[in-house]
């Protein structure tokens, strides 16, 4: 699943291939782990928001004015942040 | 530019046809050995550098026949003795 | 290399050769990430040392993602990789360095950087006179990337140019992670 392969998948709007790549990337080559990680990071957002702490909506609005490439990459950084918060992740390429 | 690689993945090294490499039967992330095991790290570095002098045939792969279990045992002893080798 | 050092190595004797701990890695990578690996059909012409190691300047190039703690890290989150590289001063010590990487286990390297980036071992060999010198900088990048053509065109080409040009290396130790 190299970039040229993904370009082809994107051109065909092949969501299956695109998502498979995301899972492999996030799961360090293990698609099942990647799928679990995606679920876990979303689950972590709920845990955090349940704490009902103040949020900075102005900051969010400013961030959302950035370009789409920056925001798309930010999505990956946020995922990693949330996975680290969850305390359960294996990101060492050993599987 | 003469180059030498170290590798723990012999099949990858063979496939991408590096000029010369030292192979270690060790896990990823430990190409030069174990923490604080200075002697072993030196041995790996010297082994690789030696190949710069002797590895004339393209694709030369030299083995360092030290099992990871042995490295772990030595590293554990090191740690228990509270000193560095 | 002394006779004692030489005696610790075997020739490529299959009876002595260790077994790769993670067998079939090439196949696994190509199955999971088809098209992501650089492929070569033939060897490059074998370059040889033109002078002894004791008078040669060595550089170290690594995919371990190490850098000075004072530098901003490379981007380990990008799904295609980060096509930049870091210069690591060759006289840096373990305590000044940090690894940001996700794709290989570096707990032990965090304790002792020399496990994956033998910078202090090379410094010692230089002091002992076994090496003529080290380049001012070593080179580090993130090994994970999904665009091998772009990698060759950017990271690999730029490091090669720096190694030969500004760093004036005579030889290179290449260390994957």
Explain this structure to me?
The complex is a heterotrimer of chains A (95), B (85) and C (177). Chain A has 95 residues and is mainly alpha-helical. Chain A has one domain (3-86). Helices cover 71% and strands 0% of the residues of chain A. The radius of gyration of chain A is 15 Å and the shape is flat. In chain B, strands 1-2-3 form a three-stranded parallel sheet, sandwiched between helices. Chain B is elongated and about 45 Å long. Helix content of chain B is 45%, strand content 15%. Chain B has three helices and three strands. The mean pLDDT of chain B is 90. Chain B has helices at 10-16, 38-54, 68-81, and strands at residues 3-7, 20-23, 60-63. The longest helix of chain B is centred in the middle third of the chain and has 17 residues, at 38-54. Chain B is α/β, with parallel strands linked by helices and 85 residues long. Chain C has one domain (52-175). In chain C, the strands form two sheets. In chain C, strands 1, 3, 5, 6 and 7 form a five-stranded mixed sheet that branches. In chain C, strands 2-4 form a two-stranded antiparallel ribbon. Residues 1-16 of chain C have low confidence and may be disordered. The chains are: A mainly alpha (95), B alpha/beta (85), C alpha/beta (177). Chains in contact: A-B, A-C, B-C. Chain A binds chain C through residues 1-6, 21-22, 24-25, 28-29, 73, 76-77, 79-80, 91-94, and chain C through 28-29, 32-36, 75-80, 102-107, 146-150. Strand 1 (3-7) of chain B pairs parallel with strand 7 of chain C, so a sheet runs across the interface.
